């Protein structure tokens, strides 16, 4: 049976882990922590404890950045400055800030410096 808080983990593929880590740290104003998990090096996003999900940037031969496929939405306080920083640091806006129905907040999507489609969500 599926747990009520989905997802439990996500991975964003990279071609250059150093470049992607610098991009996300700048765009999101966070620090990603490098971990070696069985020979695979990840740059891990902050984890807030259960029931919050987290994830990582990953550089692996069988993981290729793409704008096709699944989209991970990252929760931010205000998506406007994050989207602006993404555009200034090698990303491109795919979907501008868009209101969700009935006070559910706002979302946007951008192409990151690696070529992935990534979403942002914020309450404002």
Automatic annotation (TrEMBL):
Transmembrane segments: none
Domain of life: Bacteria
One Pfam family recorded for the sequence: Glyoxalase
CDD domains: SgaA_N_like (cd07247)
Domain VOC, chain residue ranges per copy: 6-123
PANTHER family assigned to the protein according to its UniProt record, in alphabetical order: GLYOXALASE-RELATED, VOC DOMAIN-CONTAINING PROTEIN
Name under which the protein is recorded: VOC family protein
